[in-house]
Amino acid sequence: ATDEVMHGLTGAIFTFGAADGPPMLPQAHAPQIMGGLVGFNWALAALLVPALGPDAMAWFEVIGAGDVVPAKKPAPDIYRWVLDRLGLPASACLAFEDSENGLKASIGAGLATVVTPCDYTRGQDFSGATAVLDSLEGMAMPDLRTWLSGTPANV
User: Are 82 and 32 contacting, i.e. CB atoms less than 8 angstroms apart?
Assistant: First the structure.
């Protein structure tokens, strides 16, 4: 279910060190994650609540819906808006995207970005991504810390 949920969370921003967070990773690491989401509130709720339970929306400090900024992806505005509300620099966060436009937006905001293409975006250009993965299965905290550093991965 992690891949299905993360594909719906295009624009997820995570940072490390919070008291609690979403269980997208193995449970031993879930308490170390917090973040913000980029998307439409109704769409995120429709995805998260059935997949992860009624409290899923509360796991995120900030949800940046598409109607809060004038310019949509590939403009970086929504990522900057979320980072501002989180009070964090881009260098402290890692974005997850699934499209070329999403990647352009996250990179434009200065975020290291992991891309997991879906069937609709598989042939797009993901140049500049920190990592491009077929699946999030097996993703572990050491991977996230490496990617957060902006070190490109050959996976």
Answer: no
